[in-house]
Amino acid sequence: MFEQLTQLVQQFGGDAVVNNSAVPNEHNEAVMNEASSSIMSGLKNMVSENGGAEKLASLFQGNNAQDSSHPVVQQLTQQLSGSLGEKFGLSGDAASGVASSMIPQILGSLVNNAKDPNQSGFQISDIIGAISGGGAANSGIMDVISKYGGQFGLDQNGDGTVDASDAIAAVTKNSGGIGGLLGGLFGK
Predict the structure, then answer these.
(1) What's the pTM value of the predicted model, to 2 decimals?
(2) 43-102 pLDDT, tens per residue?
(3) DSSP string covering the chain, please?
């Protein structure tokens, strides 16, 4: 996922960083690398926060990833802004401008690519795996899927919960595997 994220940062960093006179040219590449690292670490940190898995799950609904008022977008924007000011000496306004320009575009494109069935090289399960690191964090995201899965048609057997039996039913019904199951949750 880091590679896809880096590509999106390069794509959207042109106006926000390269063509921005507030960012010295000698820092352009480092600023974009910091944006990639900051987004990835911010998403990973959110997984361990209380309620973080729910915030992340909501990012995949509708166009929330592009909404600058969404809590995940705000948190990542503030984190990157602070980092750019601290590491590269950008003014508060310049750092905030770069972060608020890039974060919604990058997250929006990342989520849209993951939800697009024509983007076979990148799945929602890739994002979850990359930010959760497996183990207990994965469990937290799966808890959110269980909690809200019925709203997205994931309760395959109609028992009111989304669990392993629903995953098996989804796999045998759709042959989409766990990626298909997660895709159903996130509108893919």
Answers:
(1) 0.69
(2) 888 877 777 777 877 877 778 888 999 999 999 999 999 999 999 999 999 999 999 999
(3) -HHHHHHHHHHHHIIIIIT-TTS-GGGHHHHHHHHHHHHHHHHHHHHHSTTHHHHHHHHTSTTGGG-TTSHHHHHHHHHHHHHHHHHH---HHHHHHHHHHHHHHHHHHHHHHHH-TT-TT--HHHHHHHHH-SHHHHHHHHHHHHHHGGGGT--TTSSSS--HHHHHHHHHHH--HHHHHHHHHTT-
